[in-house]
Design a protein that fits this description.
The chain is of the alpha/beta class and 193 residues long. Helix content is 37%, strand content 19%. The chain has a seven-stranded mixed sheet, sandwiched between helices. The termini are far apart.
Length: 193
C-alpha cells in the first residue's frame, strides 16, 4: 500500500521536476524473477528506475539508513533491505535470492557505486541472475537530474547470460561485462538522440 502510494508521488514529482518519460516498459516480464540492471549517477536512481513500473522493485540500501527512526519503519515497506558498508553480506545475498525465488524484481547497479554505477557491486547482478535463473533486464537512465530538463529511462530487452553459468569466476566477470556493455551502449545511443 505504501509502495503504491509513494510510487504515485514519485511519478508525479519526477514528471514535473525532470519531465521523466519511460521507453521499453513492455520488456519487463509481467511476472517472474527479474534482475533489473542500470547505470547509476544519483541517489535518485532507485526511485526513478522503479517508479515507472507497475511491479515492485526491491533494492539494497545502506544499513545505517535502517537505524534512523522514520526510515527504519518505511524502508522495508517500500522494498528496501539493508546491506553493510564495505561489502554485501551473506544475509543480503540470501534475501536477494529468496526474493528472486518468489518471482520478485531486484534493482541492481552493477558498476558498484554512483557514476562508476551502485548496489551489489561488480559481479553481484550476474551472480544473482545465474544462481536464480532470473531474467536480466538492462536499463539506461538518461539525463542529469537538472530541474525541468527532460530525462528518460529506457528498459531494454532481456540479456541472455546463460552461456556463462558454468564458467566460475571468469564467467561471472564475462557476464558482468556483457551486461555493462549493453547498458553503456543504451546510454550512448539514447544520449545522442
Amino acid at each position: 500500500m505504501l509502495y503504491r502510494f509513494l510510487r504515485g508521488v514519485f511519478r508525479l514529482m519526477f514528471s514535473v521536476m525532470f519531465r521523466l518519460k519511460a521507453e521499453g516498459r513492455e520488456n519487463i516480464p509481467k511476472e517472474g524473477a527479474v534482475v533489473l540492471c542500470a547505470n547509476h549517477t544519483s541517489n535518485w536512481d532507485p526511485p526513478v528506475l522503479g517508479s515507472l513500473l507497475e511491479r515492485k522493485v526491491h533494492y539494497m540500501a545502506k544499513a545505517e539508513l535502517f537505524e534512523l527512526p522514520v526510515l527504519k519503519q518505511v524502508l522495508p515497506r517500500i522494498g528496501a533491505f539493508p546491506v553493510k558498508r564495505g561489502g554485501v553480506s551473506k544475509d543480503s545475498i540470501r534475501l536477494s535470492l529468496q526474493l528472486l525465488k518468489n518471482g520478485e524484481i531486484i534493482g541492481v547497479f552493477p558498476e558498484g557505486t554512483r557514476s562508476n554505477a551502485g548496489g551489489m557491486g561488480k559481479k553481484g547482478a550476474a551472480s544473482l541472475a545465474l544462481k536464480s535463473g532470473a531474467t536480466v533486464i538492462p536499463a539506461a537512465i538518461i539525463g542529469n537530474y537538472s530541474l525541468f530538463r527532460p530525462m528518460k529511462v529506457v528498459y531494454g530487452p532481456a540479456i541472455d547470460i546463460s552461456e556463462f553459468a558454468d564458467a566460475g569466476s571468469e564467467g561471472l566477470e564475462q557476464a558482468t561485462d556483457k551486461i555493462m556493455t549493453v547498458i553503456r551502449e543504451m546510454v550512448r545511443r539514447h544520449e545522442s538522440k
